[in-house]
Write a structure and sequence with these properties.
single chain, mainly alpha
Length: 120
């Protein structure tokens, strides 16, 4: 077997693993009940699955312009997934849809008691 064959096999394996991770993220969004677990399912396996699929595309096509296109895609995903998860989690906390008894540390409890414009 040549190096090209091994790279193609690695690309197929990476696509399958990445697709499986994206599938588990989608199933987790449907099956989990509360916001924190859904956020975990939406961010971690989905981002890793996308990275693996992009790596498989780069291995399969073996082209530097393709790699140059995929690097910003991965970087933007790495930047936006945690930010969007943080914003959704914060809004769920403000709406009261998070079970406060399940929190180990509630760093936002003080800000919830004092309105933002109260100066305290």
């Amino acid at each position: 077997m040549t190096l090209d064959d091994w790279l193609d096999i690695a690309a197929i394996a990476l696509i399958l693993i990445g697709a499986l991770l994206c599938l588990t993220a989608a199933i987790g969004l449907l099956r989990f009940r509360d916001v924190p677990t859904r956020l975990h399912a939406a961010t971690k396996p989905q981002v890793l699955g996308l990275i693996l699929i992009c790596l498989a595309i780069a291995l399969s096509l073996r082209s530097w312009p393709v790699v140059a296109f995929l690097v910003p895609v991965v970087l933007i995903q790495l930047a936006t997934a945690p930010l969007s998860a943080h914003m959704v989690g914060r809004q769920a906390y403000r709406n009261g849809t998070i079970d406060e008894n399940a929190l180990f540390v509630d760093e936002l409890a003080e800000s919830r008691r004092t309105p933002p414009a109260a100066g305290g």
